[in-house]
Specification:
CATH superfamily of the largest domain: Metal-dependent hydrolases
Largest sheet: 6 strands, mixed
Radius of gyration: 20 Å
CATH topology of the largest domain: TIM Barrel
CATH class of the largest domain: Alpha Beta
CATH architecture of the largest domain: Alpha-Beta Barrel
Number of helices: 10
Number of domains: 2
Structural class: alpha/beta
Strand order of the largest sheet: 3-2-7-23-24-25
Distance between the termini: 18 Å
């Protein structure tokens, strides 16, 4: 048995002082405080002094990092990305596609499905260090609006049909857990309803939808929104559009890129006030350039340029170089949120939005995926299934 001891712990629904976390076989068996539990004599105790324990971060929108693009990387290369993510506190993530020729997308989905299915076994083999691992696939494209494509190549966008959706799901071997779709497209509502029936988290985004079209998507089964404000019809005080529905609907969780580049800090504060601590989700939308020097990198079928922290293509923002530990600290600075609430937006909230029952919280039965933070929110260490990284 491994026991972690620290100054504070975020479950993240509550804060525990002088916590003890009991870990057996990679899972949490008990969370308590020093005053309420005894440590077995044979336990291995790790004293983390003034640190804060919190769940491992969950990134449900990630295109790559450490020079690797998830649509192009070979399975043998993914451990490099996984290691990079772990060093920034991410223990689980959704590799995210971009619009590409459908044949290329199907091939990428097959490779990612293989990586997902291989990941759990690799965590206990031959004493290899544990890493962040892919938990499911996020389809961002091809069902996006031609009016709000961002940098997704317009020639690869496809109107949503059940036939294409089924082919994508087959290629992914059932591992599609999230899908971004523009709800105003012909056929979108039928695909949304079918995806929701399969327990895929349907996220509205890359959209020029009116308020009513966005509401119709929610009625059909959509329950999330993708990088709020970016690649969306702007909010207007008489025609609130999709952003009006995203900010006011109690049925939608929503995510945002909190790098201070994609969305101004003041607007991030507005978003967090509107969605609150229960429905706000942090994502990175990171590309292969994350963790790398300035230069040219791949994003699916296109190339992007990185300079001074901005990732662009032809002057348009094209993903980010944000890391999740930075995003958490940014939220405390931009919006004055407590570290507890900022951590929740990077852990429990994305896990709940995506239907990941064993991730994003510290409680008996959950995987022992834990970040060790300084009082200021800086990452000190990551535990994956109870093993330190």
């Amino acid at each position: 048995m491994l026991v972690l001891r620290a100054s504070r712990l975020f479950t993240p629904l509550e804060e525990v002082l002088n916590p003890l976390v009991f870990i057996e076989d990679g899972f949490i068996s008990k969370v308590s405080s020093l005053s309420q539990a005894e440590i077995p004599q044979n336990a291995q105790v790790v004293d983390l002094a003034d640190a804060i324990l919190a769940p491992g971060f969950v990134d449900i929108h990630l295109h790559g990092g450490a020079g690797l693009d998830v649509m192009r990387a070979a399975p043998a290369e993914l451990p490099r990305l996984n290691t990079f993510l772990t060093t920034h506190g991410v223990t689980g993530y959704f590799p995210t596609t971009v619009a590409a020729p459908l044949d290329h997308t199907y091939q990428a989905l097959e490779r990612l499905a293989d990586a997902i299915e291989a990941a759990p076994a690799s965590h206990f083999g031959n004493g290899d260090p544990l890493q962040a691992r892919p938990l499911g696939i996020h389809l961002e494209g091809p069902f996006l609006s031609h009016k709000r494509p961002g940098v997704h190549p317009p020639e690869y966008l496809v109107e949503p049909t059940l036939q294409v959706f089924e082919r994508l799901c087959q290629a992914a071997c059932g591992h599609v857990r999230m899908m971004t779709i523009a709800p105003e497209l012909p056929g979108a509502l039928e695909v949304i309803a079918e995806a929701a029936r399969r327990n895929v988290c349907v996220s509205i985004g890359h959209s020029d939808a009116t308020l009513e079209a966005a509401r119709a998507a929610v009625r059909a089964g959509a329950r999330h929104a993708t990088h709020t404000f970016n690649a969306m019809r702007p909010l207007d005080h008489r025609e609130p559009g999709i952003v009006g529905e995203v900010l006011t609907s109690g049925q939608l969780t929503a995510d945002i890129i909190a790098d201070g580049i994609h969305v101004a800090p003041e607007v991030i504060q507005i978003f967090l006030q509107a969605k609150g601590i229960e429905r706000s989700v942090l994502i990175t939308d990171a590309t292969a350039a994350a963790g790398m020097p300035d230069g040219t990198y791949q994003l699916g079928p296109i190339q992007v340029e990185v300079k001074n922290g901005r990732c662009t293509r032809d002057g348009k923002l094209a993903g980010s170089v944000l890391t999740m530990d930075r995003a958490v600290r940014n939220v405390t600075q931009f919006a004055g949120w407590s570290l507890l609430h900022a951590v929740r937006a990077a852990t429990l909230n994305p896990a709940r939005a995506a239907g990941l029952a064993h991730h994003g919280h510290l409680a008996p039965g959950a995987e022992a995926n834990i970040v060790v933070l300084s009082p200021a929110g800086e990452l000190r260490k990551t535990f994956v299934r109870g093993r330190g990284f």
